[in-house]
């Protein structure tokens, strides 16, 4: 937007901020609403076509208003693809047509790393405008995949009992759903400073520029390894135990970054992304698969995407930015304001979960 379209940094920041707001609204309301009207396959196909049309609208856009409208349109469709795909995975696991959620999720992380490396090469050779064309190519491939044969269950519209309320608030009546949601919101919010200021912090502690991309990808590689082994190594772990371990790992991660401001420790701490992000996400999916019906999962994914992956991150990015201006390291240690409460809540849920399991066995 800045270098290709010629708008100012403040204008681009405003556009992206409004895009995050639209993203939260899309995943919270639009995606769950249409998931009741259409099958998972149809919904994915519509979202991918909408994403491609949105990206195409950037090409003729030149003014601030045009770019804002294109961004709002994009954030109506594109962000919904992630909860839609996770909903598909959860449905397939429930119907025994997908054995390992973790392993399938690892492919997405691998794709992220590979795409990032390839894109870096092309942007270095032809400039930042290549990003738009790469996204268009990805959206086109997604649209084409929509015509490929898929399991029959994905073509069925979720059955909704008209005699029962199916609104968002109905999820809060599901045993411990609200508690688990709060825990994962706090866990994901704790990444705000890392996502927003991790790159410039590495410059601050004099990391070689050619290594910054590699250092940041250590976290993604740790995430890939976790998802690849999660279903075998952590199958017997309860959701509460996984959430407590995720919070502990996240707390240790940000303490290390704060206490030892050097490249080597930051790189080592990146391995804990397997706990802070991947384990927390895996635990939430495990809870959904075990306790929610296929019709309820899209709503739960909408809440998770809006509050945990969008709005909470936006709020704590502002908090982290305030701390970063005082002292860069404070932005990271400040994130334990999320991780410590999440760990305490996870331990409380683990106790409740244990009593519930004991009563079920009895």
Automatic annotation (TrEMBL):
Residues 5-332 form the Major facilitator superfamily associated domain. GO terms for molecular function: lactose binding; lactose:proton symporter activity. This is Putative 3-phenylpropionic acid transporter. Keywords: Cell inner membrane, Cell membrane, Membrane, Transmembrane, Transmembrane helix, Transport. It comes from the Bacteria. The keyword Oxidoreductase does not apply. The chain crosses the membrane at residues 12-31, 43-61, 67-85, 106-126, 132-155, 176-198, 210-230, 237-257, 263-284, 304-324, 330-347. It is found in: Cell inner membrane. One of its GO terms (cellular component) is plasma membrane. It holds the Pfam family MFS_1_like. It is a multi-pass membrane protein.
